Amino acid sequence: xxxxxxxxxxxxxxxxxxxxxxxxxxxxxxxxxxxxxxxxxxxxxxxxxxxxxxxxxxxxxxxxxxxxxxxxxxxxxxxxxxxxxxxxxxxxxxxxxxxxxxxxxxxxxxxxxxxxxxxxxxxxxxxxxxxxxxxxxxxxxxxxxxxxxxxxxxxxxxxxxxxxxxxxxxxxxxxxxxxxxxxxxxxxxxxxxxxxxxxxxxxxxxxxxxxxxxxxxxxxxxxxxxxxxxxxxxxxxxxxxxxxxxxxxxxxxxxxxxxxxxxxxxxxxxxxxxxxxxxxxxxxxxxxxxxxxxxxxxxxxxxxxxxxxxxxxxxxxxxxxxxxxxxxxxxxxxxxxxxxxxxxxxxxxxxxxxxxxxxxxxxxxxxxxxxxxxxxxxxxxxxxxxxxxxxxxxxxxxxxxxxxxxxxxxxxxxxxx
Length: 417
Known about the structure:
Number of strands: 2
Strand content: under 5%
Structural class: mainly alpha
Radius of gyration: 22 Å
Largest sheet: 2 strands, antiparallel
Mean pLDDT: 85
Strand order of the largest sheet: 1-2
């Protein structure tokens, strides 16, 4: 009975996200309301005779995941907020890009940038930077949605072949299902799928984008220094995570503190109205609250056993087909607990099949805007990008995902014995 009530509340919450642009109620408010309500019910009526202490332990685990993501996002978004407010990113874009470029070539350029940037940084930072570049070009709503769709897919594809690029990839690697050499085989299929999606989204785009010649702001030494700290933080996050297993959150918070201290020192003689730490207030907290609500809902789904039901798919389908559908399911259900449930179920698959599963769970979340961190960030940053407007791109995304998945299986057959 309790499980049914919680499941109904979760479904209502996701429906309200879908119709946000119709009811005009912010998705952060609805997800936070239903996410907390589900856990309150779990405390009032524990499942399977659980004690309050047992429920508290599960909630603590869920809160730890949320807090880690919250603080990481806060640190990354503070860097971006500062650089955006100073016009640093916009100035950099206008200095690098030519005076004009075809809309089609811009589509390929944005896709390549998002793909490769997410390969060397985390998905959250890659999404924020890629969106900042696109939004600085002042495109019309329809085209902006297409570019944002490509960014979400490209960012998710870029990190799938690296243990530092995607959490689920790391989980599968640590479970000894694949090796680093196996994972590198995913680079070509992932890049191919991004190229295909860019080609489809750019169909009909025959115009030319002329980049307005604006009076570029003088880039201050302080801004360059902070940009260097930002890039160094991203690189250090990757290196320390691999070499010393230092949590990415810890490195990013250290980088943020270094930014505060260095900026304070550099600005000490300048007459500035705004202190460096004040840029924390420019973060879009709607995004962070939305993350809290969504992860609370996913945690509740795990508690009522919904995630474990997905593993039964492997009892009726061959792993090659089941993996394909699991990737699509990851667009509606967080891929981390979904991967954890599959690993705990001890499903028997060979290396080639685990490789396709890695691609599926890493990229499949792109099918829906709420299926990945990149999608949620994009939806919060671009008001024209809603669940429904993104859903209109579904067929393009499905074709690109299918090609990428098929290619990942093919390279596995060719190069893995």
